[in-house]
Amino acid sequence: MTKILIVDDNTNNRLTLKLLLEACTECTIREAVNGKEAVQMCIDEAYDLVFMDIMMPVMDGIEATRQIRSFDHCVLIVAISAMGDDYNKERILFAGAKDYMTKPINSDLFIKRLENYRLLIRWRQNQRKFAALSTNLFEEEVYSRASIFYLRNEADISEAWEYLIALDTFSGEAASDAIQVYFNGALKLLERGSRSELLLEQNDENFIMTLKAASDWDEEEMNAIVNGFFSGKHRIGSDCFSLLIPKKGPSKPISSEKMGLDSDTLGILRHSHIEKISAADYIQEMSVDFMNKLDTLEMLEESMDSHVFEMQNDPKTSRWGRISEDLRQYAAVIESLFEFQHIAFSIISLANFIDELETEGMELKNRTKLLMILSSIFGDLTSWRVSIFIVSDANDIHYLDSSLLSSCLQARMIFEENAVESGDDFELF
User: φ and ψ at 26, to 5 degrees?
Assistant: First the structure.
């Protein structure tokens, strides 16, 4: 049972949150009318989740969060702030809140976020120690450090997948194939009721990816998955498999003529903003009308992520049209901002490409690569939104302009027959 504390001096606000919580989760709910009362309640009793208003009498939410965090490092504190109160949002996040929501509460967005909070809380409540993964199945020496993911559910599998595709040095065809093997292997184990671990080790030349099952390993089944997607060096044991992925060397740039870029696209890739504008300065000039649309951007990001996940999980699923529709809505929201015309251009160009894409008969390998790139792009957009409009910590609001467009171009290049000759790679900006 999840234990939740609602902290707000406004009775109607507390009632709204309570009704939403009771409608979508099993929980015990307590209420506090100011920060001082909340601190004492957290001293007397441990809570899993605290919804903390910022502006309250006696003690505000920022000081209350700071004090609670001083003795409880695990409780998940979610700030509740008024729309446009960016200064206090940043202060309460710095004090120790892990997320925030704006008032008035959007019920659909709240329910989606609550599910994420519950996953994290369940993980903390039921954290399970896995037996130490002895080593990979190769005899190569590796660095002393390693990355380990405990895969208990689909969310864990997706988190590890996103981590892998975001690694700069973990790229190329071998890495793409290895991620596909991992993803299918981990899902298959989960379907059989077996949790697993993913271990990523490396040395100067190679990555070594090892997937180990906690129980119920079917060696024949895993052989089919590994051999069906991965042509590199691999070994399969009684309860795990290891894949050897060569590290990718420096990429060789290709000419704009070979890529067939038009003048508008080249202009964005090569454009350099002489005067940097920090996010903090930019936000000061933002209109309230646009700030009201930030929750729409977040909902679209979550929608696009879910489409990609479903398509990766089931190769027969097709949601290309929904992705392009979400992209166009996303671009429409930010298109009114003069400073971000380049971002909107990139998003619309990606939507146009998806609409033009011949999806029937698409090779599974190409489909997988494209979905990985899309997931990375959506992750970049989320980070950009948070960095510019939420925490406002970006030193230059244009940091994503050219890199986003180059990522969109990379997606297109998978299907352009004359885009890249054998041995050439696209240079990301």
Answer: -85, 120
